[in-house]
Amino acid sequence: MSLESQLLQFLFAGLTLGSIYALIALGFVTIYNVTGIVNFAQGDFAMLGALITVTLYQRTGIFNRVITVNLQLPLPLAILLAVVLTTLIGVVLYLIAIRPARGASVISLIIITIGASIALRGLGLIVWWTDPYPLPVFTPGPPIEIAGAVLTRQNVWVIGTMVAIVVGLYLFFEHTLLGKALRACAVNREAARLMGIKADHMALFSFALGAAVSAIAGIVITPSTFMAYDSGTLLSLKGFVAAIMGGLTNAPLAVAGGLVLGLVEAFGAGLLSSAYKDAFAFLTMFVILLLRAGGVFGQRLAEA
Amino acid sequence: MPPLLEIHNVHVYYGRIQALKGVSLEVNEGEIVALIGANGAGKTTLLRAVSGLLTPHEGDIRLDGRSVVGLPPERLVALGVAHVPERRQLFTTMSVIDNLILGAYHRYRSGDSREAIRKDLETVFEIFPILRERQQQRAGTLSGGQQQMLAIGRALMARPRLLLLDEPSLGLAPLLVRELFRVIAQLRDRGVTILLVEQNARAALRVADRAYVLETGTVALSGTAAALLADPEVQRSYLGQLRQAM
Q1: What local confidence, expressed as pLDDT, does residue A249 receive?
Q2: Which of B73, B90, B154 sits opposite A193 (nearest CB)?
Q3: What is the pLDDT along chain A (304 residues), one digit of tens a residue?
Q4: Half-sphere CA count of A292, side-chain side, radius 13 A
Q5: How far is A62 from chain B (nearest CA, A)?
Q6: Buried/exposed A208-239: b ≥16 CB within 10 Å, e otherwise
Q7: Residue A42 maps to which CATH number?
Q8: What pLDDT, on the 0 to 100 scale, is given for residue A293?
């Protein structure tokens, strides 16, 4: 394999990984903008989305294999139901854990989400045990070969899903009344209430949206990477790193952040050492935080 | 017929500090009522209580004779109360047109006809032609005067019966202040009832029908605007100072 095709291969891998981080980051940004809360359960929604899909799609023993779920729904239906169920879990999480603590400091609310993340992981462990689960690729077939590098069909699904969701969210936030109301809450909650916008409903909706987007991210990546009860933690952290590149408020920068992070990981793992794959992510975060303190992003934020 | 707005013996505390100590006033349909007084007299607090942003600890607030104490702002805007808060509080990162559309949010939700909303948008553009020109511009990039117009325009999109204006002239050049008060008078002629909080007492009293003077959380004086303009006490405390300040 020539160096060029190798580099191209890393690029494909990076864009795929980066797409997932971008989606998780979008969940962070959506919830943070509307509620001011950094929701560290974001990655666990991805885990739930994927494992619920697995359970609905194939014969799965849950609760330490005491119960066998044998629905074997068609994959698209399983995915749809899993996204809906994960969204509901996001709503329930908001209603039972976040909403009762309204008025608490943001730090307390963030700690609640960390607790929620641990709880969801615990739930995942009880239901699915420690097994990593796969999903079949969405459309089987030979990979696409470009200049000696291969792009699997699932990679195309992952990148395409990310693009579709980014476009969908853009249209939603820019061109629908509900999207505009959500943005209004993010800019000025009190003024939004004076317009008749129920800030509480918007907060609930942002959790639903964040959960749905994460669930989709978890589902599309599972055919290439497997998913286990604790996979959400690292996804949360990576998504968070991507989101802070946009100052947690800027969705386009968060998407860019996700892609950059994916590329750093893929090239770092490919050219240096794959053992330090995750370390590259946190090194990136470290550098970004230094730059932000230096005002690179801070200035842009001040303008916004 | 009861007055449109009736405030009876309202008390508000911030922690242990009492901001309003039994304020009573009323605003009749079709009036401009000015609320003047020094900084910290409780003017803004009173408006926030009327629009539901805070709940008085004691006393009653009635709209058309019905108590609205404890209702959240989301409900009050549907009952016809629109509040233009101090310092405008626009959705700064959003466009002018989006700010105006969000002003009509409760009407979209309650199924008011798109046609009626579009007609009101047209009216707002008639009153503030500059907003039509700038509709795609981000609200935060407008000048101070234009932002104030947008804030009022946004409130009008809610089709209010009672418009609460908090310091609309704050930070505006004298020429713009004159223009603004001309618009406020025009709004009354269009049938909007206005409760106007102002530091610029002279301008407020000139446009208002009646006025209340608030001092440290209580109503110190009240009467027709003309009478208060002529009142030596008001002249000394609120109008003289202003002439010096200008």
Answers
A1: 86
A2: B73
A3: 788 899 999 999 999 999 999 999 999 999 998 988 999 999 999 999 999 999 999 998 888 888 888 899 999 999 999 999 999 999 999 999 999 998 888 889 989 999 999 999 999 999 999 999 999 999 999 999 998 999 999 999 999 999 999 999 999 999 999 999 999 999 999 999 999 999 999 999 999 999 999 999 999 999 999 999 999 999 999 999 999 887 888 899 999 999 999 999 999 998 988 888 888 888 888 887 787 765 433 444 444 3
A4: 15
A5: 44
A6: bbbbbbbbbbbbbbbbbbebbbbbbbebbbbb
A7: 1.10.3470
A8: 62
Q: Which of helix, strand or coil describes residue B240? A: helix
Chosen from A195, A200, A303 to mutate, greatest number of chain B CBs within 10 A = A195
Output the CA torsion B218→B220→B223→B226 (10° steps): -120
ipTM of the predicted structure?
A: 0.93
| B55 in contact with chain A, both atoms CB, cutoff 8 A | no
Total structural domains within chain A: 1
A194 touches chain B (CB under 8 A): yes
Range of the domain at A55: 3-303
Number of inter-chain CB pairs under 8 A, A vs B: 64
Tokens coding B115:
């046609």
Relative to beta strand B66-67, strand B58-63 is: antiparallel
**Closest CA in chain B for residue A181:** B102
pLDDT of residue B54: 95
Two tokens, residue A160: 């395409």
Quickly tell me which residue has 């918007």 as its tokens: A202
Indicate yes or no: CB of A195 within 8 angstroms of CB of B154: yes
Query: How far B88 CA lies from chain A's nearest CA (Å)?
Result: 9
Chain A neighbors of B53, CB-CB under 8 A: 190, 193-194
Exposure string over B199-216, b if 16+ CB within 10 A, otherwise e: bbbbbbbebbbbbbbbee
**Residue A165 to residue B163: CA distance in whole angstroms:** 41
> Amino acid identity of B173?
A
d(CA A171, CA B40): 44
Residue-level length of chain B: 246
Edge-to-edge strands, sheet with B81-84: B81-84, B162-166, B193-198, B32-36, B210-215, B218-224
Q: What separation in angstroms does the CA of B163 have from each of A102, B24, B90, B173, B200?
A: 30, 18, 16, 23, 18
Sequence-distant (≥ 6) Cβ neighbours of residue A69 within 8 angstroms: A55, A56, A59, A60, A61, A62
d(CA B177, CA B106) in angstroms, rounded, equals 30
